[in-house]
From TrEMBL:
<feature type="domain" description="Thiamine phosphate synthase/TenI">
    <location>
        <begin position="7"/>
        <end position="93"/>
    </location>
</feature>
<protein>
    <recommendedName>
        <fullName>Thiamine phosphate synthase/TenI domain-containing protein</fullName>
    </recommendedName>
</protein>
<feature type="domain" description="Thiamine phosphate synthase/TenI">
    <location>
        <begin position="129"/>
        <end position="226"/>
    </location>
</feature>
Amino acid sequence: MHVDYSVYLVTDNTPAILGDHDLVEVVRAAVEGGVTIVQLRDKTSDTAEQIRIAKALHAVTKPANVPLLINDRVDVALAAGVEGVHIGQDDIGKPTLQHHLPSLKSPKLEQGFEPMCCSPNLTRESDCDAIIGVTANSLEEAEIAAKGGADYLGVGTVFATLTKENTKSIIGTSGVQHILSSLAQSAPEIKTVCIGGINAKNCQRVLHQTAAAEKSLDGVAVVSAIMAAKDPKKAASDLRQLVATPPPFA
Ligand code: TZP
Ligand code: MG
């Protein structure tokens, strides 16, 4: 499955970000504007509500061929039949990640742990093709996730952000570059996006500064730059265009 990571939207349903907008309508506008992949990140809704939202988002993303991933919740992803999951280091912990990531990727069932598949109805042996993403705040975390078989890494936090206040570490563009340089040797195939404080003003600079590494980013992941925008469609389309264009100072 070819996945375009260039403009990666991570949702947020908190009033501080979403205001009085409707989540599904914001994602619809963002997809129309050109986001290439979407992650449902919902820290407040219960399981049934998350499945309902995931299905509503999938009705928007699937016809546009935009993959939908669910943050943390393999069960929600399976129930909604979406394309994958994104797993945060804080959410399941390093030893668990190290242990379970290979079984998530493996087409073989491991005891007590269902591998993620595009649809719960698919034959797991043959059709397991889920996208698995993992957050990496450091080189160590990146290497563990890469060894475990992650398809992509969300590298960050690049810049301070109000969206996720308890972020462990701000690594800046130099931190991203450090991780990319090492991955160029150890996991050249793995895809990478950066996250944390990325917006239309800084995305080209971030891509440019980190591309000095032997491995360049495959895209930028944003929450507030689209979810909190007055016009999410325009915000998405601006980002898409900026990411595809070499910066004027290059
Ligand atoms: N993980 C690291 S930073 C972050 C997440 C989910 C939030 C990024 O939000 P924003 O609004 O794009 O800075
Ligand atoms: Mg998480």
